[in-house]
Amino acid sequence: MEIENSENSQPLCEYLGSVIRELRSRHGLTIAEVSERAGISRGMLSKIENAQTATSLDTLAQIANALGVTLSHLFSNYGKPRGGAQLVKSGKGMEVVRRGTRNGHTYHLLAYDQGPKKTFEPFLITLEDPGEKFSTFEHAGTEFIYMLEGKLEYRVGQEVYLIESGDSLTFRGEIPHRPEQLLQMPIRFLAIIHYDSSNEDK
Question: According to the model, what pLDDT value does residue 110 have?
């Protein structure tokens, strides 16, 4: 997906490819070494570096780990505004793919960290398929969910919570969690992941 703004018209896939290639070269690593560490094929990594294919957020996270940086570091200078603020217009958030994502289930990343430390990640999540089954997620930090529209049951650990429009839910990200049952469609909610101050680039 290409994202453009007045400050930076470079397509996101080209930007990510150049950042990954630069980090790999800086560490003196070959495509074979990084692809093995990341658990992907050499051909796939080469295509990502050369902006010949789009890839999932999970794959980018694997590559970031292989390069010794956080996922947000890959995006840190993309579209960096001069005025110190970042505006994402309605419908223009970066659409990303996460494990378990299918048709009728979209994540839009609404802001991109710009410093050396990952502080937070805000997502707008839309669910439209009532029959979808979800994988369990676990991650660092604290997650805050605010329900904008619809109704669903959300599992955190052994507990299941009913959340509907106007409700919020907060939990530690390392506790296994996932949407359990979609009750009223369409469903839209904000999911904001806040990372501890100790969570820095390696």
Answer: 80
